[in-house]
């Protein structure tokens, strides 16, 4: 279902759009296009999850629909439509309507795109332009992506699409070819430390250093590391990758650190953390170890892609992650 763009930022970052680090080039390209004679109708905001793409999309959409002499609402804007994961089922929908915490579905559904397209048959409410934000577009189910493609091929007059993509390669090539791409780079360690000090002041210097090392340039991932309490899990992952786990004891401890019923958010964060551990192993390894590292990283990428849509047992998932990490130690001892 399309809903008005919320005024609050997504995720845990509470910064204003102007405070986000690394957005300067994206803002420059966006504003040059906005001031040009013909604004492109489709945009992809591409970069790691947690670098502030959602906040950029919301602020950019407000600039897009604003018109001189037309007062803009301070809260929800009727000409900014925002699509994301809907509630998981009817029971979760009721929780959402009651203002209670609710679980999200794993994908953006085709019905949401179809309802959006019905809405686009009407004129914008306030001015001559309307913005549609899909967050994240790479989580659309197949039918939804194909349905959206029709709107991108023949966009309604005055309608502009802003697609947020954490993994642009998961978008249909035909969607990518119809959009301009704004890239959001990884953030430097020094800037990451400044963000963590401001957003997670409870984190120690040691914890901040571990979060920065694990987050690979994503402030949101670093904040997740602190707030989801991934420090012990990170330590165990590093130990398994270095020494192996022949008696499965380290994998058992890692499963215990994850908890009996970890949230999907924590499971996804743990997979991303394991990818960071594997990537870090590339520094200074022998050429004989590279195939095992590449294979483990590829398997974790596949797990990361499957986890939002597959109904994995949390315990088995973390054991599989541990086994992939243990394969790195085995490859080193065999070399």
UniProtKB/TrEMBL annotation:
Pfam families: DNA_pol3_delta2 (PF13177). One of its GO terms (cellular component) is DNA polymerase III complex. InterPro entries: AAA+_ATPase (IPR003593), DNA_Rep/Repair_Clamp_Loader (IPR050238), P-loop_NTPase (IPR027417). SUPFAM superfamilies: P-loop containing nucleoside triphosphate hydrolases (SSF52540). Residues 39-188 form the AAA+ ATPase domain. One of its GO terms (biological process) is DNA-templated DNA replication. Signal peptide: none annotated. This is DNA polymerase III subunit delta. It comes from Aurantiacibacter marinus.
């Amino acid at each position: 279902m399309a809903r008005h763009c919320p005024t609050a930022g997504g995720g845990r970052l509470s910064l204003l759009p102007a405070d986000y680090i690394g957005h300067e080039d994206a803002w420059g390209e966006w504003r040059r296009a906005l001031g040009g004679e013909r604004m492109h109708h489709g945009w992809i905001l591409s970069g790691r999850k947690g670098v502030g793409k959602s906040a950029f999309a919301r602020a950019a959409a407000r600039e897009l629909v604003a018109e001189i002499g037309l007062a803009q609402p301070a809260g929800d804007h009727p000409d900014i439509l925002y699509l994301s994961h809907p509630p998981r089922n009817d029971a979760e929908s009721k929780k959402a309507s009651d203002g209670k915490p609710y679980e999200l579905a794993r994908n953006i559904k085709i019905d949401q795109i179809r309802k959006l397209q019905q809405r686009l048959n009407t004129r914008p409410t306030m001015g001559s332009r309307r913005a549609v934000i899909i967050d994240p577009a790479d989580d659309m189910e197949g039918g939804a992506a194909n349905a959206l493609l029709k709107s991108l091929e023949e966009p309604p007059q005055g309608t502009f699409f802003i697609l947020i993509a954490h993994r642009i390669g998961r978008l249909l090539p035909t969607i990518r070819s119809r959009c301009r791409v704004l890239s959001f780079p990884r953030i430097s360690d020094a800037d990451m430390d400044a963000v963590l000090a401001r957003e997670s002041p409870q984190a120690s210097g040691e914890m901040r250093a571990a979060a920065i090392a694990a987050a690979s340039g994503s402030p949101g991932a670093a904040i997740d590391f602190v707030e989801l309490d991934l420090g012990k899990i990170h330590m165990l992952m590093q130990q398994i990758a270095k020494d192996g786990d022949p008696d499965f004891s380290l994998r058992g401890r890692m499963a215990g650190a994850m908890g009996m019923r970890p949230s999907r958010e924590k499971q996804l964060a743990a997979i991303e953390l394991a990818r960071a551990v594997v990537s870090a192993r590339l520094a200074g390894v022998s050429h004989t170890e590279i195939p095992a590292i590449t294979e483990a990283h590829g398997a974790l990428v596949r797990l990361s892609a499957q986890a939002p849509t597959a109904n994995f047992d949390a315990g088995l998932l973390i054991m599989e992650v541990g086994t992939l990490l243990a394969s790195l130690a085995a490859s080193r001892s065999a070399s």
